[in-house]
Amino acid sequence: EDQVTQSPEALRLQEGESSSLNCSYTVSGLRGLFWYRQDPGKGPEFLFTLYSAGEEKEKERLKATLTKKESFLHITAPKPEDSATYLCAVQARGGADGLTFGKGTHLIIQP
Amino acid sequence: NAGVTQTPKFRVLKTGQSMTLLCAQDMNHEYMYWYRQDPGMGLRLIHYSVGEGTTAKGEVPDGYNVSRLKKQNFLLGLESAAPSQTSVYFCASSGRETQYFGPGTRLLVL
């Protein structure tokens, strides 16, 4: 059974204070690992897809990395508008079936 | 280009009532999905479709039915709503890889 565990559950940072969110996963052959951002009352918004260990992707203040067992979402010099819940999900190889999600990390950036 | 839209945005039902949630996408995607999101839990897959006329069960299919009569639409039905079905329902669609999500439907079953 595919599993995704995200830590920490919640994180409060000062504006400009860099940190990382963790996503540990077990999957029967990884097709892709996905990061989404979700704002209150909204649907998940796609951020990144990672396919193989060693891969990295960046977007503005966010950088996602992938190993064989976990992924990190690094946030550099965050701003209050980066406050959201960040979701990690995996899709197994060969699967048109859906994503397996973690419970998310609720990130608050204080001015 | 609206992406993925969901109707309605919010609904209150009484136990035993039925309803249909509608998802529409304008990206010509083959795959469509229904998830539910509950506090303290990750999104969980209810049903999915790999193309027009096809459906398959996900992780939590009990109490729900789906239909994909047109490529752009995916309907989720509750035949006899139960309080345990109070949740936020998200539809998603994808081409080969990335799933794009709709804004959600909040359902309260009393």
Shape of chain A: globular
- From N to C, what is the helix and strand string of chain B? EEEEEEEEEEE
Shape of chain B: globular
**Overall average residue pLDDT of chain A:** 95
Q: Helical residue percent of chain A?
A: under 10%
Q: How many strands appear in the DSSP assignment of chain B?
A: 11
Give me the secondary-structure topology.
The complex is a heterodimer of chains A (111) and B (110).
Chain A: E1 3-7, E2 10-14, E3 19-26, E4 30-38, E5 45-50, E6 56-59, E7 62-66, E8 70-75, E9 84-92, E10 100-101, E11 105-110
Parallel strand pairs in A: 2-11
Antiparallel strand pairs in A: 1-3, 3-8, 4-5, 4-9, 6-7, 7-8, 9-10, 9-11
Chain B: E1 4-7, E2 10-13, E3 19-25, E4 31-37, E5 44-49, E6 56-57, E7 65-67, E8 73-78, E9 87-94, E10 99-101, E11 105-109
Parallel strand pairs in B: 2-11
Antiparallel strand pairs in B: 1-3, 3-8, 4-5, 4-9, 5-6, 7-8, 9-10, 9-11
Structure description:
The complex is a heterodimer of chains A (111) and B (110). Helix content of chain A is 0%, strand content 59%. Chain A has no helices and 11 strands. In chain A, a hairpin with a 6-residue loop joins strand 4 and strand 5 (45-50). Chain A is globular. Chain A starts with a strand and ends with a strand. By secondary structure, chain B is mainly beta. Chain B has strands at 4-7, 10-13, 19-25, 31-37, 44-49, 56-57, 65-67, 73-78, 87-94, 99-101, 105-109. In chain B, strands 2, 4, 5, 6, 9, 10 and 11 form a 7-stranded mixed sheet that branches. A 4-stranded antiparallel sheet of chain B has the order 1-3-8-7, with no helix packed on it. In chain B, a hairpin with a 6-residue loop joins strand 4 (31-37) and strand 5 (44-49). Chain B is globular. The interface between A and B is medium-sized, with 22 and 25 residues.
